[in-house]
Amino acid sequence: MTESPALLEVDGLHVTLPVKGGRRGTVIHRVDLTVPAGTAVGLVGESGSGKSLTARAVLRLLPPGARTSGDIRFDGASVPAMGPAALRALRSRDVAMVFQDPRAHINPVRTIGDFLTEGLVTTRGVRPRTAEATVTELLRAVGIADAPRRLRQRPSELSGGLLQRVMIAAALAGEPRLLLADEPTTALDVTTQAEVMAIIEEARAERGLAMLFITHDLALAAAVCDRIAVMYAGTVVEELPAERLHTRANHPYTRALLASRPAPGADARPLRAIAGRPLSAFEAGPGCAFAPRCPGVREVCRTERPALRPVGGAAPDGGGAACHFPVTFPIQPHAVPRAGDRSTDRVRRDH
Question: N or C terminus: fewer CB in 10 A for the chain?
Answer without folding.
Answer: N
